[in-house]
Protein 1
Amino acid sequence: MENRTGIRHSIIELEQISKRYRMGDVGVAALDNVSLCVAPGEFLVVLGPSGSGKTTLLNLIGALDTASSGDICIAGQNITRMNRAQRFRYRREMVSFIFQSFNLFPGLSALDNVQFGVESAERKPNGMTAREMLERVGLDHRLHHFPHQLSGGEQQRVAIARALATGNPILLADEPTGELDFKTGIQILELLHEQSHLDKTVIIVTHNREIARVADRVVELSSGHIVRDGVPDNHKTAIADLSWEEARDETMAIVDALVLARLASAMAAGRGDCADHRARHRHLQRTHQHVPLAAAVE
Amino acid sequence: MYDLRLSLTQGSYLDQTELLNAVSSIDHADWITATEPRLILPTLVDASSAAQSVIVPGRLIGTDTGSAQTRVNDLYITGGHGLEGEPADAPVAVLEHKFAAFYELPPQGDIRLSGDRSLRYVGTGLSPEYFVVFTDEGGMMAEANFAVVFLSLQTAQTLVERPGMVNDVLFTLAADADSDTLRAELAVAVDELANVGASFMVPQDDPAYNMLYEDIAKDELFWRAMAYLFLAGAVFGAFNLATRLVEAQRREIGIQMALGVMPRWIAIRPLLVAVQIAVLGVVFGLIIGVFVGDAFGDLLQTMMPLPISLQPFQPRIFLEAAALGIALPLLATLFPVLRALRVEPVDAIRTGHLVAKGGGFAPLLARRASSRVLTWMPLRNLLCAPRRALLTLLGIAAAITLLVLIMGMLDSFAVTLDQARVELLQANPERMLVQLNFFYPENSPIIANISQSPVVSGADASLKLGGYMIHDDTTVETLLDMVDMTSTLWRPSLASGSYPGERPGVLISAIAARDLGVQPGDTITLRHPQRTGLLSYGWAESEVEVSGIHPLPLRFQTYMDFRQAEMMGLAGLVNALQVTPAPGVTQDQVQQALFDQFGVASVQPVSAVIRVFEDLIGEFVAIFSVMQVAAVILAVLIAYNSTSINIDERRRDMATMFAFGTRVRTALRVEIVEHLLTSIFGTALGCVLGFAFLVVLLTQVFDVVIPDIEMTITVQPLTLLVALVIGVLVAVLTPILNLRKLIGMDIPSTLRVME
Ligand SMILES: Nc1ncnc2c1ncn2[C@@H]1O[C@H](COP(=O)(O)OP(=O)(O)OP(=O)(O)O)[C@@H](O)[C@H]1O
Ligand SMILES: [Mg+2]
């Protein structure tokens, strides 16, 4: 199995996974014999047209769904053989979801939604509180707002904070920017990308090729098959294409930040050096200070 | 049935021929088209067989069976045959149908009467005066405790050794007759004949007639009240459901509004759904209604068998019900639809649209320090959608209201009964009441035979008289018990006031005091029988003091000191006794031993008097017991339904929790606590409302339906406990019953679908 870094063991291993749905006499193969390995800290984008099986793949990795055949090993554990209680535990301790439609608890404030993440993992990630989590996603002024009082981007940032708050090593995001405008999408993307530098494995599902360009690695699905797996097309030059023409310079600043981060990540890959992570993190923060994201895009 | 009934004062008898002559001599004798002289006497009837022991008090009715000319009240023979073919002096009788039916007696057989006389009954029959059986004490539907024996007049006279005597006459009147004039003339005629008092009755005074005709209106009022209560519950359920249905579509409504669809077109779809549901519901309800109506008709038919019973289809009522059934769900839908249409499209479309604008009361808690989110989640969920929580809460409250109301009704019956039982039994639960068929001197051998019988250890002489209490313009019929107020055997206790002293005084019931508008210390007029000759009694009025109130909740029960009998010219006379069985002697043995004594009309344990209460409220107890089951089922259904809807609305949250690996039991706990909160408040509200309705129903409606009994309005702890248990159980069990659905939930699909 190909492993891009070639050094680390895979944290996610899919072996000949198939998922078939039966609708009366018609069978639909959402995934057909898919094999895939993902290394820890990898920032993977799953690309593909609508109905190609992206969500299905994510749900299988997150143990929300069970495969029709094949094995899925996460951190050495075969989750296809797990019983219900074990799958719940796996979800509690290994994966965190970010949904396209956010799925925040409407009765809980932003802070409490994040606090739910903190508590559902039954341990404090990085010793960070829900409030600090929200500060990190830039929502310290929206702590006590309820989901229906937040914009889509803000809701998605709360959802990310909630997913991060669990401290789980794998982040699964199904079209996290699907409902958002470009500017907000970039912000969200950057947030997630940053996570891969904190040793989290991030899998993002999208059919947006622009997004795919900032990934470490792109897996492309079509009709339930992997049709491509590798470094994104033009991933260095394409960054410029992420912007609008009229906002080119500003966007460049953001994209620079992303590229820098990605390069740093590539350099650090394999070492798992904590100090290095922190350094990268500081670097990112500095970048933010120089070019505030909101200002950068507007 | 008769048009006018003349009864001689208790204890008076007149010669049959003399009386009829006097009647035919009055000025307006031509108004009378038929006359039926009768001899009516209390008795004890023993219809025991090898299989069962049946000894109950009853009444002998001797009536001229010979010519149709003298028949006013006909007997409708339901088994065996009538007395027409029998010789006038044959020792045969017809037994009242309801009594015979209650004990499943054969259509012909033998019975024994007190004074050790045997009779053969040749048939069973219904008489209009006993279409509903009332005892002397006012017990209603008392066929289990009251036997009426119809005989030929001659047989009756022979049996009680009063040849040629009668004490009751029934008349049929011409259409143009004025019964008041006739009354006056008849009263004068009877008085001139023998200085005897007479009382008159028209059918409207007859309890059986009243029950069947006058009370129908009151019963209808009661059943309507119940029906509207059930309707209110149903409407509430419909409203609740409709609101939820529309709420669930609010996003779509918002989208349509955003797309510029005319509001009236948007409204049409949910309203069409409502029409569909309403029509189906009405059709279903009408079909059920026909069956229930039929079953109820049959029930009434067995409870009150009449010679002819018709149950015509009631198109008006069904039309009314259908109209209500269609209109109410429509209205119930219209309101939330209009509400939804008033919402700004943006608010309807955005996520969490079910959440109240501004988050309801959730901001109250928003700034609370966040810890144990899942512990606080139920409360926050409720606070952020207070309207929805309120709907669930009210749904549960409606169910519990109904339950508490109906069980509270039974509680009140039970407590009222208990109160009567405590008063009547006091420290002497074995006490028995002996009723004589006539007034006898206190020192006569008849009384001595009873009081010195080896089966009794103590006996008090007393008098039982009928009469009226009058104050201002109000008259209350009363049963006057003249007892020894210093008795060690038993005496009425006092709820307030004091026992009468030297001056004539009475203890009356609280309800009579209220009706008369008097308090202890006030004076009322007592209209009572007064002895005018050896076998003749007239009516007299005396001023008496209300010295106190007794706790027996029977309106007509009045006590007076036995020593005041002088007032009635009855000093030294006795027509009833209370006795205590000798040690080691059972009440049955006393009954058997005294049954054969001359002059004894009936012997009953005092506990049998309690049956009067049971008879009075038994019909309601039976129906309410059935309704109680229905109410419990309805309560559970409504509560389950409200809770289930709520669970469905929480599915997405549940799926999200599961995606984050929240344990099923933790998620379940969140659900249960949320429903417990609603449920407990709903139950508490239901208990309060139920009690309020109970007070209204018992004071406003029951007061009219059973005016003779004062209900003690009570909701017993057990009822509250049942309500709470149902409320809590439903809150706990509904999520658990939905657990399979919860566990088996397809998480991806639930999360995939947009709200
Ligand atoms: N529960 C289901 N029952 C039947 N078929 C399903 C079910 N869920 C998914 N499918 C089918 O499986 C295929 C893959 O679905 P999936 O949701 O993974 O697509 P996707 O790549 O995420 O598409 P999109 O980009 O539109 O979200 C589709 O053809 C879909 O119709
Ligand atoms: Mg998808």
Protein 2
Amino acid sequence: MSNSSSRERNLHRQLANMKHSLFDQGYLDEQFIQLEELQDEENPNFVEEVVSLYYWDSVRLIQNIEQALEQNPIDFAKLDNHMHQFKGSSCSIGAKKLKKECTQFEKYCKTGNGEGCKRTFQQVKKEYATLKKKLERYFQFARQVGCVEKACRPK
Amino acid sequence: MMSKNNLALGQKFSVLIVDDDKIIRRIHKMLLTKFEFESHAVENGKEAVDLYISGKNFDLILMDMEMAVMDGPKATRELRSMGINNVIVGVTSRGSTSEKQAFTEAGLDYCVEKPLSSETITSLLKELAKKY
């Protein structure tokens, strides 16, 4: 019994370390913690649901930006609008690095710098994909920890 | 026993979330549920106005600024011109003071930044308690 509870503790520690690392490396900010605080017994997977919803919904926002960047000439007002939507969604899940890249994009957009926008958008997509992988790993591990917890619970 | 959020009539405080971002709608709905509010969400200002035209009423409207079809300032102006006196709180991620001011002048009671947090809701509640 002591083995399983120490195993549980180890897994929890590993999960906590994973999370701290996401914050320490600047991938996530306080907003993610706000989402976690909304999680409860009735909605134990709320954060994962919101993040999944974000990745599902943001595909079209990214497509909108890509299409707008392909136009010649670029309609910067439209582009700014699309990025504003994408940035807003990204902020709502606490995506800190992604938010920074979006802000940079907005600056280029406001000055009508198409090349700057295109370059920055590559960074945006890179951060978007990196965060997705990291969060998928985190939630997958969190679910494993949850399963072990249930298995270890005394009958 | 009445919770702090119940009106004198013993009903739950009702909130209309008006936002084109489905992630924000989901988060705000959950946040409001934590505060024991009842909430309904729509995607743009026109849907909000149509709800009121159909006879629906809410104690509080959380109105996003930028939305397709009908944006926050326009919807706010329409609701006020219809004689709607409910508290309308503008919710925006745009930092510009002039944009916030223009939105406020459309008829808002307050303007806050999104995404909302528990702290924002708590401060709003204190303000709303004065009004109600």
